[in-house]
Amino acid sequence: MKLFNILLLCFFLSFCNAQTCKLNKKLLTAIAKQEKHKNRKLGYPYLISFNNASDVKFLKEQMETLAGKWLDNRTYDCKNINLCEKITKTLVRYDIKNIDLGAMQICYYWNGDIDIKDYFDNEKATQKACEIIKNIVDKYGVSWESIGKYHSYNIEKNKKYVNSIKKELAKLVVKKHFN
Is residue 8 part of a domain? Predict the structure, then answer.
């Protein structure tokens, strides 16, 4: 069974060179499904999720006058790329960087090296997510735990995330063969 898991993972981690990083589309879709907000469609890009409750409390008061909408106690729908960029720049200026951005929920704190608008552009964000995963795999090796590090380095959160990814992959594979 362990060999099967390794072979399956290698299939889903079919990288090209760093310039045109490509992951198996099913793996990227499974990750995107895990990262999507429950009240938005897959690929909805205009999301800012806060990882610190203290940031949310402060910001809820500050952001009430903006055109966006709070979806829950940690995620703000900024409605369009311009408002998302404006809010993100303001957050960064106030040193609030532990935020997950866009459809792929890329953490700005760890990955603040791209243009802010790119987090909210699905094609560019997916490319960045692929590069993040490739870098993790290059550093830690090919394993499900490496895939889970996209979400969290915490072992328990990592395992839960990986199990969700595996379930989504299974659904996607079965769907393809029976539809």
Answer: no
